[in-house]
């Protein structure tokens, strides 16, 4: 096809984005990823990534992405990326979710751990860890929460004790709610290395092999019936010094850079919600036309459908504004990421609730909308509950006084 | 790709902010429209923002207007900033590039601050800032009429926000001879002007909401109950965090709507509607939450919060309320609303 004609067609199909113009190079990039996805996204959805079979299938999909250069577009080329700009990454995400491509089994590594590695990792660590992560060979699992440390993460008690003889640390304790823990390979997390230091001091950011001696993993079935997360028991697990990220004792600061990414841009880009909102609009049309079984009165939810779509758009615009500021002033996202997290998680829960309402009596029979609904309900809980986010917004963005801490320590 | 006020817009907004910070303290805002303050605003170009250069205005667009209107809301300025901009847009269409005629004269008068405008786009509704307007523009079908205030019969109407100086204009109905037909075939221009009004009102609501939020954060930090400031309680914090979230996610929709307006993009109507939905909802939420956090003192006229509460109660509905604009977006997105299953008897 004539290239100019093709670009024009792409523009027409993208009526929603042409109001804030991307460059020709960015639109080229969009066309490229769109074409590739159209040719490669599996026609049948993969089995759930939280089954043994589905986990493997998702790893193979990660490998396919990697081989085509799409696994980690924002990373430097030498680690398997293509040095994409933030805007290109947002475009990639829009196209990725729009195409109905599989969920990213490696996302906790790629989007949460890797940004921290780029900031604090040594060259040796980056060279060793990033390429197999990008290829989908090593799936990383987050080891933060503990039975007694959820919202109050700094209350964590899992310990790492110095082992001078072997040159490393010995881990003991229990981590929980570790997504992909059932089938994942390695864990990154926080451990207390100096119990005498203050709550936020004396923590160290460490990595551990889930196949190592002393590790036992107990998968936990989630509301959808699949073991999406796990408890990880650590019983004198040795970790070499090479697997300390940042300085010992600096774990809290190192980890906070990951929470910024998790709540901010990288965990939930707007593309995911734009795609879901477009599907919701389509679902409304199908239910109304009778081509999808649903409630007899879908028009009751017209406003809710419009609201979900508008909120996805607003999130997209907000992120464009943030990226504009990052590029112009280098402002750190910081506490503002709490605004993002509250907004996208509530938008997602409301969007999927509306879909369930549109399906009416057919909603309970299951399918992608029910899966999406159950997943969306976790949003206000993981990555720091929305209650904690609201505290951050009030204290750090509005400057309100902290609540006196009662009855602790 | 870039989303944010540009440098000139920021500078312009900063100068408006500085001026209103001096001239429009809450006690000044309480006193209502001030010709002196309007003159000062004219000195930096506010009323002529959208008046083309050939008539002595700045010839700028909705992007600048949004930046300025947000400042007007922040200061609770009772001046007809939105009306001046909408009048400029309407008169620019009506003048059609000509240097003579009533439309051209009024454009020049707007730009130099010599006249204030009121705009009646809906026939029956009371008109904001009509009481102190020097001329009024009235839309009927697709025609635009104008008349000097002296020739119009403007009846003051009470309202929740005294700063709006509402009036009813029924000259066109009762004494058509007094109204001057400025132009016909203005259907598109009228729709565009309504969008501009919605965008400017949305921006004003953002500034108003933020001002209420700032007042309330200060109050919650000062007010002590049970031995500590009420701002330390999560029940209070979380309410105000939700207000900030609503404001911050509304702002980029307003910026985008202004951008779409200025470039006459195909999505301009939907984008303006979306901006007003988010801004009205954010400001309504702010008004409810800030009143609640203030408690009984917030329920008094003497508390400065009342100035913004009243402004928001009026402005969140003016230029189309959230429900109106939400329905417009729904129609655009989902097709027209079908007829009700059971027609009303």
From TrEMBL, chain B:
InterPro entries: AcylCo_DH-like_C, AcylCo_DH/oxidase_C, AcylCoA_DH/ox_N, AcylCoA_DH/ox_N_sf, AcylCoA_DH/oxidase_NM_dom_sf. Keywords: FAD, Flavoprotein, Oxidoreductase. It comes from the Bacteria. The keyword Flavoprotein applies. Residues 8-113 form the Acyl-CoA dehydrogenase/oxidase N-terminal domain. Its cofactor is FAD. Residues 194-333 form the Acyl-CoA dehydrogenase/oxidase C-terminal domain. Belongs to the acyl-CoA dehydrogenase family. This is Acyl-CoA dehydrogenase family protein. It comes from Streptomyces humicola.
């Amino acid at each position: 096809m004539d290239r100019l004609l093709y670009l024009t067609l792409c523009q027409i199909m993208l009526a929603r984005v042409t109001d804030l113009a991307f460059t020709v190079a960015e639109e080229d990039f969009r066309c490229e990823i769109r074409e590739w996805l159209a040719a490669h996204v599996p026609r049948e959805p993969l089995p759930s990534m939280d089954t043994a079979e589905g986990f493997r299938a998702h790893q193979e999909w990660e490998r396919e992405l990697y081989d085509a250069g799409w696994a980690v577009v924002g990373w430097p080329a030498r680690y398997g990326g293509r040095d994409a700009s933030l805007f290109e990454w947002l475009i990639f995400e829009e196209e990725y979710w729009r195409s109905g491509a599989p969920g990213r089994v490696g996302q906790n590594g790629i989007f949460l751990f890797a940004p921290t590695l780029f900031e604090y990792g040594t060259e040796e660590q980056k060279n060793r860890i990033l390429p197999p992560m990008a290829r989908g060979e090593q799936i990383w699992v987050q080891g933060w929460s503990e039975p007694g440390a959820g919202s109050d993460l700094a209350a964590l008690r899992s310990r790492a004790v110095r082992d001078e003889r072997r040159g490393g640390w010995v881990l003991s304790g229990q981590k929980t709610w570790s997504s992909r823990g059932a089938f994942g390979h390695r864990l990154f997390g926080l451990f207390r290395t100096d119990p005498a230091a203050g709550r936020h001091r004396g923590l160290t950011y460490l990595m551990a092999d889930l196949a190592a001696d002393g590790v036992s993993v107990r998968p936990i079935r989630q509301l959808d019936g699949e073991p999406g997360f796990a408890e990880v028991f650590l019983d004198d697990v040795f970790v070499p010094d090479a697997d300390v990220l940042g300085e010992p004792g600096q774990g809290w600061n190192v980890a906070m850079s990951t929470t910024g990414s998790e709540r901010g841009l990288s965990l939930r880009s707007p593309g995911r919600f734009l795609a879901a909102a477009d599907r919701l609009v389509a679902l409304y049309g199908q239910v109304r036309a009778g081509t999808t079984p649903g409630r007899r009165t879908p028009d009751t939810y017209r406003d809710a459908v419009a609201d979900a779509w508008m909120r996805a758009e607003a999130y997209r615009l907000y992120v464009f504004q943030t990226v504009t500021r990052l590029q112009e002033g280098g402002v750190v996202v910081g506490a503002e990421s709490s605004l993002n997290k509250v907004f996208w998680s509530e938008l997602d829960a409301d969007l999927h609730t509306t879909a369930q309402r549109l399906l009416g009596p057919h909603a309970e029979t299951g399918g992608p909308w029910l899966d999406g609904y159950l997943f969306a309900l976790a949003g206000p809980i993981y990555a720091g509950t929305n209650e904690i986010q609201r505290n951050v917004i009030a204290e750090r963005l509005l400057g309100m006084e902290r609540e006196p801490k009662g009855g602790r320590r | 790709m870039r989303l944010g006020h540009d440098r000139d817009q920021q500078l312009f907004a900063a100068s408006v902010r500085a001026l209103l910070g001096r001239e429009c303290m809450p006690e000044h805002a309480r006193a209502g429209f001030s010709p002196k303050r309007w003159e000062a605003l004219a000195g930096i170009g506010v009323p002529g923002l959208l008046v083309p250069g050939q008539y002595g205005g700045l010839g700028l667009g909705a992007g600048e207007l949004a930046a300025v209107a947000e400042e007007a809301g922040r200061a609770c300025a009772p001046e007809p900033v939105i009306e001046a901009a909408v009048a400029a847009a309407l008169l620019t269409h009506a003048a059609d590039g000509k240097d003579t005629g009533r439309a051209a004269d009024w454009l020049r008068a707007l730009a130099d601050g010599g006249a204030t405008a009121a705009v009646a786009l809906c026939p029956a509704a009371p008109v904001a800032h009509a009481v102190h307007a020097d001329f009024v523009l009235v839309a009927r079908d697709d025609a635009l009429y104008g008349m000097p205030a002296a020739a119009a019969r403007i009846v003051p109407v009470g309202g929740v926000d005294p700063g709006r100086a509402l009036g009813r204009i029924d000259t066109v109905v009762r004494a058509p001879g007094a109204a001057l037909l400025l132009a016909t075939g203005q259907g598109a221009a009228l729709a565009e002007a309504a969008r501009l009004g919605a965008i400017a009102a949305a921006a004003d609501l953002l500034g108003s909401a933020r001002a209420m939020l700032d007042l309330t954060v200060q109050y919650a930090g000062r007010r002590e109950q049970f031995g500590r400031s009420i701002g330390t309680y999560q029940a209070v914090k979380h309410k105000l965090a939700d207000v900030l979230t609503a404001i911050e996610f509304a702002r980029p929709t307003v910026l985008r709507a202004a951008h779409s307006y200025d470039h006459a993009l195909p999505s301009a109507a939907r984008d303006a509607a979306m901006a007003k939905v988010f801004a009205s909802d954010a400001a309504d939420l702010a008004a409810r939450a800030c009143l609640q956090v203030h408690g009984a003192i917030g329920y008094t006229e003497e508390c400065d919060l009342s100035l913004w509460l009243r402004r928001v109660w009026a402005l969140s509905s003016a230029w189309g309320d959230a429900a109106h604009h939400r329905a417009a977006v729904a129609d655009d997105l989902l097709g027209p609303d079908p007829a009700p299953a059971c027609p009303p008897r």
